[in-house]
Write a structure and sequence with these properties.
Layout (H helix, E strand, L loop, with lengths): L42 H7 L2 H12 L26 E2 L6 E10 L4 E10 L1 H10 E7 L2 E3 L2 E11 L11 E13 L5 E11 L2 E12 L8
Parallel strand pairs: 1-3, 2-9
Antiparallel strand pairs: 3-7, 4-5, 4-8, 6-7, 8-9
């Protein structure tokens, strides 16, 4: 993690101090129908219409919804990629520092969202963090354009034993560089994520396998 008073992590760049603010609770992601290989036309609209607060609240709640031993942000090879995922959006994460390679299966027809580098903490922390934040991402060799989400009040929820916060819920501020993707075409894709702020840097080389989920009970 970043060796300053800011504890940053890419796609999980974290400050472990939370400022108390009043903000609305995050709304759940819109559900996605996965009966057909082709995505529903409304699916990508849902992720792109999320406000900064909604997107970041949902991502941080996802990141803090799993205990340390099974947390996808701490995952070294992608085997924990599906932990805590909900219908509607497939979240990806970076690391708490350094670069790893992960293989991840993504349900067909599901939009993808991830930060290049991000933070939660006080509003003043976000200002300092975003002044130095930069990053890049490529999908199958083509560059993706990140969006800058400055300090935004959010509410996040967490489970006991998660690696990021000791509180069950918190009103705090969040910020970062983000990418939102429409559902990827079925098949394999190579996604490269890099992010940094100050002395902190992190990244992930993702091998994504976009496929129709196996029905429960199938062999």
């Amino acid at each position: 993690m970043r060796p300053t008073r800011l504890a940053a992590l890419l796609a999980g760049a974290l400050a472990l101090t939370a400022a108390c603010t009043n903000s609305p609770a995050p709304r759940p992601a819109a559900s996605t129908t996965e009966a057909e290989p082709s995505p529903e036309p409304s699916t990508p609209v849902a992720v792109r219409k999320l406000t900064s607060a909604e997107l970041q609240s949902q991502w941080w709640t996802w990141a803090a919804s799993t205990v340390k031993a099974r947390n996808p942000v701490l995952d070294q090879d992608g085997r924990l990629c599906a932990q805590g995922q909900k219908d509607g959006i497939w979240f990806l994460a970076g690391t708490t520092g350094g670069t790893v390679q992960r293989s991840c299966t993504v349900p067909v027809g599901t939009p993808v969202a991830f930060p290049l580098v991000n933070l939660f903490g006080q509003a003043s922390d976000c200002i300092e963090f975003m002044d130095a934040a930069k990053g890049s991402a490529t999908l199958d060799g083509s560059p993706l354009t990140p969006e800058k989400l400055d300090a935004t009040p959010i509410r996040m929820y967490a489970v006991d034993g998660n690696p990021f916060t000791s509180e069950a819920s918190a009103n705090t501020w969040s910020c970062g560089l983000w990418v939102r993707l429409d559902p990827l075409t079925p098949g394999t894709h190579e996604l490269t994520i890099r992010g940094e702020s100050g002395s902190f840097s992190t990244g992930v080389d993702y091998h994504l396998d976009v496929t129709k989920p196996t029905p429960t009970g199938a062999t």
